[in-house]
């Protein structure tokens, strides 16, 4: 009676050992059988694979959720770190801008005081119309835009066209409800400009490309890439110090300028009457006489 449990345990151990020995062979045989079956009937194997995938998909989805949650947490931590760095940078920018604001206010006060001492007579205040670009007639032989505002709102030939980036050009033709802008890059465009910190006088000449060039520079002057180009105000065609672009290259082929205004991104422009007579402008914007209203009285043409 005592030996019976021992013998049963011995038999179970032997059976377990045999099962472990033949399990590997069984798995190899099953895999080989599946390979043969897959070669024999591809459609059935594809269906079987699809059913297995459908059965395992919920398990994989459940297992992937903690991973996705952890990934989201990592992304949030990185975002917080990025926001912290950006917040610090914005604080520095704010402090720097406040310093510049104090400097600008001081210079404005000094400028007004000096103007009063010199009995300086300021020019007329500008008035403007904001118009939408409705056509781009640029091509090999012309660089111009058409806006949806004309003489009915006071736009006249010769008036200046700008955006927040800088000078676009001037009004070259006016209709009742439309006007054509001659861009700074047009072949017929010639603009007196000042170049660099030493304010070298030159002429910006368009050539129907995206890179107008400088001509008629004084002999012996030096121009470097990166120098800013602004209007000089000579000739009365444009007011002084309107930004145009920056020097990109200086070489035997000439001095090329990269305009600040991207012609192909223009949607709205501002047509300004500075009261200049260099190109014989017509009636002022918003009225029939000289422009006497400030920028706050400008119009927007839908």
Explain what the structure shows.
- This protein has a domain at about 125-300: Rod shape-determining protein MreC, domain 1 (Thrombin, subunit H).
- It has 2 helices and 13 strands, in the order ααβββββββββββββ.
- The protein has helices at about 5-40, 40-120; strands at about 125-135, 145, 160, 165-175, 180-185, 190-195, 200-205, 215, 230, 245-250, 255-260, 270-275, 300.
- A 6-stranded antiparallel beta barrel has the order 1-2-5-4-3-12.
- α1 (about 5-40) crosses α2 (about 40-120).
- The protein is elongated, with a radius of gyration of 38 Å.
Order of helices and strands: HHEEEEEEEEEEEEE
Share of helical residues: 25-40%
In CATH, what is the homologous superfamily of the domain at 127-300?
A: Rod shape-determining protein MreC, domain 1
Instruction: Kindly report how far apart the N and C termini lie.
Output: 108 Å
Q: Provide the CATH architecture of the domain at 127-300.
A: Beta Barrel
- What portion of residues belong to β-strands? 15-25%
What global shape is seen?
A: elongated
Task: Give the helix tally.
Answer: 2
Query: Helices and strands: which structural class?
Result: alpha+beta
Query: How would you write the strand order of the largest sheet?
Result: 1-2-5-4-3-12
> In CATH, what is the class of the domain at 127-300?
Mainly Beta
The biggest sheet amounts to:
6 strands, antiparallel, barrel
Unreliable runs, pLDDT <50, ≥5 residues?
Answer: 280-296
Quaternary arrangement of the chains shown? single chain
Average residue-wise pLDDT:
81
- CATH-assigned fold name of the domain at 127-300: Thrombin, subunit H
Q: What is the radius of gyration? A: 38 Å
- How many DSSP-defined strands? 13
